[in-house]
From TrEMBL:
Residues 9-126 form the SnoaL-like domain. The lineage of its organism: Bacteria, Pseudomonadati, Bacteroidota, Cytophagia, Cytophagales. This is Nuclear transport factor 2 family protein. Pfam families: SnoaL_5. SUPFAM superfamilies: NTF2-like (SSF54427). It comes from the Bacteria. InterPro entries: NTF2-like_dom_sf (IPR032710), SnoaL_5 (IPR046860).
Length: 126
């Protein structure tokens, strides 16, 4: 049996692997395994939580900065992915208490673009 690399994966396969890890709240593993080196991460303009990051390391730092601000985790869910062409989207809800915003509840659509078996863009709508 040959070893399948991310470059061999279809958008459907990337979405399925994403879902498998997301259901376990393994977000940094998603980044390590599925994100391209030149991935871009975009939040809504004027977001009080996040901004824009480009590149695997800056995107990782963006996520780590948020995790470090969490004081209490109250719950989260991620819907099954919907795939269309080289994109997939999931619904996501999270409720946390953060150092700088208190208790917040975010409900969002997370859109991903896949190229050559890797995620090259994540964009959040909330």
């Amino acid at each position: 049996m040959t070893n399948v690399t991310s470059r061999d994966m279809t958008t459907q396969e990337v979405a399925a692997r994403f879902n498998e890890l997301a259901q376990q709240e393994k977000w940094f593993e998603i980044q390590d395994e599925l994100f391209a080196d030149n991935v871009r991460s975009i939040d809504p303009e004027n977001s009080p939580y996040f901004g824009y990051a480009e590149g695997k390391l800056p995107v990782r730092k963006k996520g780590m900065d948020f995790v470090e601000r969490i004081e209490q985790f109250h719950g989260a869910y991620t819907t099954q992915p919907v795939v269309a062409g080289n994109h997939f989207a999931v619904g996501r809800g999270v409720e946390v208490t953060t150092k700088d915003h208190g208790r917040i509840k975010i409900e969002e659509i997370m859109l991903y673009e896949v190229k050559d078996g890797q995620i090259v863009l994540e964009q959040f709508f909330y």
